[in-house]
Write a structure and sequence with these properties.
The complex is a heterodimer of chains A (about 550) and B (about 650).
Chain A lengths: L32 H6 L1 H14 L21 E3 L23 H18 L14 H30 L11 H4 L7 H15 L20 H16 L9 H17 L24 E10 L1 H6 L11 E3 L1 H4 L11 H4 L4 E3 L10 H6 E2 L4 E2 L7 E2 L21 E2 L17 E9 H16 L11 H9 L13 H15 L6 H8 L2 H4 L2 E8 L4 E8 L13 H6 L10
Chain B lengths: L9 H8 L20 E6 L2 E2 L4 E7 L4 E6 L3 E3 L3 E4 L2 E5 L8 E7 L4 E10 L3 E5 L16 E3 L3 E7 L4 E7 L5 E5 L5 E3 L2 E5 L7 E3 L2 E4 L4 E3 L3 E4 L6 E11 L13 E5 L10 E3 L1 H9 L3 E6 L5 E6 L18 E2 L6 E5 L1 H4 L6 H4 L1 E6 L2 E13 L5 E11 L13 E5 L10 E3 L1 H9 L2 E7 L6 E6 L18 E2 L5 E5 L5 H10 L1 E6 L1 E14 L8 E6 L13 E5 L9 E3 L1 H9 L2 E6 L5 E6 L18 E2 L6 E5 L1 H4 L6 H4 L1 E6 L2 E8 L1
Parallel strand pairs in B: 2-9, 11-20, 22-23, 31-32, 40-41
Antiparallel strand pairs in B: 1-3, 3-7, 4-5, 4-8, 6-7, 8-9, 10-12, 12-16, 13-14, 13-18, 15-16, 17-20, 18-19, 21-29, 22-28, 24-27, 24-29, 25-28, 26-27, 30-38, 31-37, 33-36, 33-38, 34-37, 35-36, 39-47, 40-46, 42-45, 42-47, 43-46, 44-45
Classes of the chains: A alpha+beta (about 550), B mainly beta (about 650).
Chain lengths: ~550, ~650
Amino acid sequence: MKLKKIFIYALPAVFSLSSCVDLEYNEVTLRDEDWTYEFFNDGVKNMIWDVYAQMYNNELADNSTSFLAGATDEAQYALEIGAVNNYFNGGWSTANPIPDTWNKSYTALAEIHTILEKIDKIDLEEWKYNDNYKIWQQQLENFPYELRFLRAYFYFELFKTYGDVPLVTTTLTNGQANNMQRTPADKVVKFIVDELDEIATYLPISYADEPYAEIGRATRAAAYALKARTLLYAASPLHNPTGDKTKWAAAAEASKYVIDHAKDWGLSLSPYAELWGDNAFFNKELILGFGSEPSNSFEMANYPVGVENGSSGTCPTQSLVDQYEYQDNGQTFGERNSGETIDLTTNPYEGLDPRFALSVVKNGDEWPSNGTQKKVIETFVGGFNAAPKYGATPTGYYLRKLVDGSCVTTTDNQVKKHHTWIAMRLAEFYLDFAEAAFYATGSANDGTYGMTANEAVNVLRNRSDIAMPAFTEDGDAWVKRYERERLVELAFENHRFWDVRRWMKGEQYFKNITVATITDAGNTLTRTIKTRNWDEKYNLFPIPQSEILKNGNLTQNTGW
Amino acid sequence: MKKIFRYLNIATLLVVLSAMFVACADTDNDDNGNLGLNIKVFSPTVVVPGQPMTINGSGFGDVTEIEFPGEINVTDFEIVTNEMIRVKAPIGLNTSGQLLVRNASGETATSRLSLTIGHTTISGYSAREYKEGGKVDKDYDVVKGNTLLTVYGTGMQFMSSAEFIDEDGNPIVVNASEFHRVAPGRVVIQVPAKVLTGNFSVKLRTIDDNEFETPVFAFETAQDGGHWEYTRRFLWQNESGKEVAGWSSIFRIGLEGTDPDKACMTTVDEETWTAIKDGEEVYFLFEGSEASNVRITTGWWSAAYGGPEHNSIDMAIDDEETGKKLILLNFKADGNLYDLLDAQHLLFTGDAYKPLGLFVVDKKWIEGGGGHFETVRESFWKNDGSIGKPEWKGYYRFGLDGHDGNNECATTFDEETWIKFMTEPIRIAIEKTGDADPNVRVTTGWWSSDFGGKEYNWYQNVEQDDNGNMFIELNLANDADFVALLEAQHLLFTGDDYKIIEIYQEKEIWVEGGDAKPTPIVLWENNTTIGALNWNSDYRFSNVETITKEVIHAFSMEEWSIIKDGTFYLLFDGDETSNLRITTGWWNGAYGGPEHNSIDIAEDDPDTGKKIIKINLKEDGNLYDNVDAQHLLFTGGGYTPLKIFYYK
């Protein structure tokens, strides 16, 4: 049956697993199905781009609830009304399932299945004398594999967020959608891994060699990286309550595969400071990134209060600062400067891991870096960028990582730059491998997989711009140091929120957060504990109540 | 022209979404969502036997059989969900047609689409085949390791592997998952780095076991992919300086723990003993002549290597490296001593020679160019066994020559070595003396200051070398205050529960290698009158395909591949005050990082007295993706580009 005319597709506010709407609508519409199949750039290709676009959750948008650091021990949002606070202030519920990963993912999956089931109808024959015809054909060959990658990606997001989820592999009728059952997470993981294994070979290593050089699309590296990340999550205590070592082993092998092939795939570790900024989209460490057009919204959201149009935003905590190690001997800031108060006149920040200064703005730093707005930041009480100013940092620090200091946020003569959200980068997989190899073998010095956990971590520690003391620990001491290293390396990249959940250590890390109050014109730092709500049910998100009401087969996650 | 992919911002997203359509299923839509058995689609639609496929539809939960065209029934498949099946196209499939699925109730459903049998045909290659008697580059191409070879044709997505030959004549199979690119019209294969230098055909195989042989191509092991390096690893060395004379029994070596009577000169650990006893190629290095009598026997004189009372001098060859003599030993193959060695030890006796050592040769692949990096070890001090654990005393004390009036130091070093200690990383090889973890304190002879921090225990920084030996790497240069004390107070390693075995340094040095010295090939020479740069855009380069009027020189595509993917050099007239910005014609990014002045990586060129900078755009990454479309631009101030070249 040929489809009727296209209707205006609106993102559904209330929505089951997919939508299939009766298309008796007859008003003037934009395009019909035939048109879509017959026009490459504006039709077919745009359908693919639309799915890609849904991967991005506005992590770098101002006041985004998808910038999760404020819901972890990494940061505290400057304002109590910040939506990210809902994760721990009681505002999070089945009726307020922030963000709505469920609906977003299943919408994307519906689009993917629609395209996959109709892709044979695409007919560009009319264009065969067009100069671009051959190129379009080449791109078209790739689309099914890209769509299957995207499907695996959205299923990872669902599994990570909810655990067991309905495994939908086709377009659905309303009746089907409202009768789906939750598939056990292990089966969802198997699906993701099997899909990625099957398609990876057919994805390009780099789009730089492909027609139009449209980098940013799914690559072979992205497929194997997603597989490795999925297996790591599947092996973690939240999804592996029995501690099945074969799951850790699978994760170790998958991460090692990424590490071993990184060079062939054109990947290499980057200086830390180059992971964000105007050109970050082309960074050789980036496996998958979401680039945006020039903007300074993120800077407006996170520049300190007192900087024109700065709103403080996501403010690093003392809990985070305490985890950075000193370069001379690996002691942490918290260990070397224990106690409720610290004398800042001794400059206790000197000699810290270089990643600290790149990630955190502290009292006395010159920030932002653009010549128009650069000033010495004062985070001490009464200082220019501090309380009692409304919206000033509640932690004594401001965010530097991911913030492009060259953006100018003055009302006139603004400077905007491209931003890139790091979805996957190579360094993560050294850490993933280290964790998986440790738990698979029981030791950080076991070389069963061709590299020990310590060697993997030390690859990152030995980068010339980092140069931190090597890991030599084993056992519990290793776990503690590794979790700290992972926090530091991947700070503000939305890993911490999920890592602590899959480790089931929310009580340990997310309940009591230490913030700093700086006083005495910047000479004294006082630590204060802020207590947040934490409940073990938070490890998995609640399925939207609206979905449960429509489909009696959907059971809610425990505790919600 | 390159077009960079950027994600759609939200406004564009809505525009696109308004062009979306949503599909309805054609089939029944009852309240419980039971659509019955139905095939919507399967993929791929063009397959070969053995190829993985997926089938999508509904009602698959109790499917028992899949019928392929030609009435081939398959029962081995995976029901992923009620709506998806994974299956491999069966062997013997040779007919096109629709798929049919059958469930336990006997119901069937047929696919809308037809399955087509795929075929692979090869139409060409990216390299020209070898021509006997022909000339390289003129008549045929040399395909180098680590470069890409493209095979064109149809049905290329069915390729499963490519088989090359390595230096030893063994096959190297590259599987499709390792191909650089797999697409219906082409596969792009990265030639293995260690490919044989020679002429041969590559075997290409498909999923359905068809085999294609390429024409004969001329291959060459990767120049920039590295080479094998052979290093000697001594299992035992004669540190006594003594010789074998008069049939003495001095040179007796045994396994640790088997010498209660202390008859051995030395005993070795189990790993070393196994390497000596079981090694297929163990070299005995000695100083001797044809007049030497080299009896390799047991400590009990019960048998001899090579046969009863055999003089192994007849097996000796000249060692090119040292000018001494070598005998290749394989105790297992020889058989005369093998079963006796554990209990009776190994004895080198006879007359008129000096044993120097036993070693094996380690083979290591070294990444690198025509030369290679070599790890050079310089030993500054070795523990002759006279110093044990420090016991928090001053045993391991070291000073500068002429600054140890009280003879407190284990040894003193000459000035050159002392300066190395103070300014470069050095390694302290240690071993534990017991079960407890050592405490390794690095301090001064006066105990006045601790390196690394107060009472810092350096054992937490211990590492292991390739042989599993523990070492601690120190860089005293990190603490100038500490270094300032050492001339007067000496350097002291104290603590407990460890022993220092050796103090040494390892450096990687670049060794020019290969058969010939690398030849500079000039890609461009400045014959213009433009002169020195002052932030102008005159020195702009492109390839011939993207040339525009702003370009001063366009490279051929082959030359451009060196510029873009290889290592090349810029010779220029400038000095330390020059500002050397390497960017694109659009001034988009800079080599080395944002607004980077690359003068910091320039070196003096000894041949011309000018300055030279080594450039690798791919490794740097800042310009690589843009340089095709945006060109390569040398700008900045205070220098004049003279030449662009690379080494062959």
